[in-house]
């Protein structure tokens, strides 16, 4: 069956990425929040085994698969280390406990499994400037508040579905992932902000210089113990900050790779503070 999903927005870039993946056949993929099922439809056509979940499964329209109820703030009804790929489009910005979000995905993913996260960016130049003035990434809208808290409701779910109250920048997303055992494999280009491009003509040289100076100072202040590990982190942060995909694109599109289980990662993180 053919479905007329809009060929625009962040889904365009996610679908394009999935269609280029040559190893989806037979892979078990979780799509959450699945929404109307547009990503699930692509995965199914690519030969993947789809497990679709959403807080409002009645919005799902793809007949070839089913969508079950699930809340990202609760344990998912999925076995440990049973999933090859998780796709979470436009979900994390609605969640108050974002560490829990990453930890749960770590639990269900196989070793070296992938996690795709997309969300509105507050890291591009226009969003940064807008935040300076009104503390919202959209310059023509007041900051998110209690009047934006409930986005959808139905008779079966009385839970609050928060609006974009918990937006995160590229550095916070990287750090949350790293704490939960993930490493950024790549970031992808999404729709460009024309205003950010114009601002970048004036701002980017100074912006890049400040970031380079900040990274250099942090590296020079490294203590001898584990200094090389810390330098690597600072370099990753610098490259993320000055990436054109960070400062010009309207959405974050991040592909994380599971490096360690959560318990193993705790021991790894202790090395940074080892005397």
Description of the structure:
This protein has 275 residues and is α/β, with parallel strands linked by helices. It has a domain at 9-124 and 138-193 and 250-269: Rossmann fold, CATH 3.40.50. The chain is built from nine helices and seven strands. The chain has helices at 9-19, 38-45, 98-108, 125-134, 170-179, 194-220, 227-242, 244-248, 262-270; strands spanning 28-31, 49-54, 67-69, 83-89, 109-120, 182-187, 251-258. A seven-stranded mixed β-sheet has the order 3-2-1-4-5-7-6, with helices on both faces. Helix 3 (98-108) links the parallel strand 4 (83-89) and strand 5 (109-120). Helix 1 (9-19) runs parallel beside helix 2 (38-45) and helix 6 (194-220) runs antiparallel to helix 7 (227-242). The longest helix has 27 residues, at 194-220. The protein is globular, with a radius of gyration of 19 Å. The protein starts with 8 loop residues before the first helix and ends in a 5-residue tail after the last helix. The mean pLDDT is 91.
What attributes characterize this protein structure?
275 residues, alpha/beta, Rossmann fold, seven-stranded mixed β-sheet
Task: Provide a concise account of the structure shown.
By secondary structure, the protein is α/β, with parallel strands linked by helices. 39% of the residues lie in helices and 17% in strands. Helix 1 packs parallel to helix 2.
What is the number of beta strands?
A: 7
Q: What is the CATH T-level topology of one domain?
A: Rossmann fold
Rg measurement, Å: 19 Å
Q: Briefly, what CATH class of one domain?
A: Alpha Beta
Q: What is the share of helical residues?
A: 25-40%
The CATH architecture classification of one domain is 3-Layer(aba) Sandwich
- What does the average pLDDT come to? 91
Point out poorly predicted stretches: none
**Ends apart, CA distance between termini:** 61 Å
User: What percentage of the residues does DSSP assign to strands (E)?
Assistant: 15-25%
Structural class: alpha/beta
Overall outline:
globular
Say which CATH homologous superfamily of one domain is assigned: Vaccinia Virus protein VP39
The SSE string, one letter per element, is: HEHEEEHEHHEHHHEH
Spatial strand order of the main sheet: 3-2-1-4-5-7-6
Q: Count of helical segments?
A: 9
């Amino acid at each position: 069956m053919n479905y007329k999903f809009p060929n625009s927005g962040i889904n365009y870039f996610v679908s394009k990425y999935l269609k280029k993946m040559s190893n989806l056949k037979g892979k078990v993929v979780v799509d959450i929040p699945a929404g109307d099922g547009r990503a699930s439809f692509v995965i199914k056509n690519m030969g993947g085994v789809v497990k679709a979940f959403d807080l409002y499964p009645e919005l799902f329209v793809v007949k070839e698969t089913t969508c079950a109820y699930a809340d990202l703030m609760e344990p998912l009804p999925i076995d440990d280390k049973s999933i090859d790929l998780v796709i979470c489009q436009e979900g994390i910005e609605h969640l108050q406990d974002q560490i829990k979000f990453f930890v749960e995905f770590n639990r269900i993913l196989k070793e070296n499994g992938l996690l795709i996260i997309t969300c509105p960016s507050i890291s591009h130049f226009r969003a940064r400037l807008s935040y300076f003035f009104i503390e919202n990434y959209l310059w023509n809208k007041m900051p998110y508040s209690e009047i934006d808290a409930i986005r959808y409701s139905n008779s079966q779910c009385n839970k609050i579905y928060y609006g974009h109250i918990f937006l995160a920048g590229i550095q916070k997303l990287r750090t949350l992932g790293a704490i939960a055992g993930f490493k950024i494999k790549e970031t992808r280009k999404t729709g460009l902000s024309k205003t950010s491009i114009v601002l970048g003509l004036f701002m980017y040289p100074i912006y890049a210089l400040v970031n380079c100076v900040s990274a250099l100072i942090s590296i020079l202040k490294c203590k001898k113990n584990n200094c090389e590990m810390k330098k690597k982190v600072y370099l990753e942060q610098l490259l993320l900050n000055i990436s054109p995909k960070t400062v010009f694109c309207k959405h974050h599109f991040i592909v994380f790779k599971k490096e360690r289980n959560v318990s193993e990662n705790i021991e790894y993180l202790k090395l940074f503070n080892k005397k």
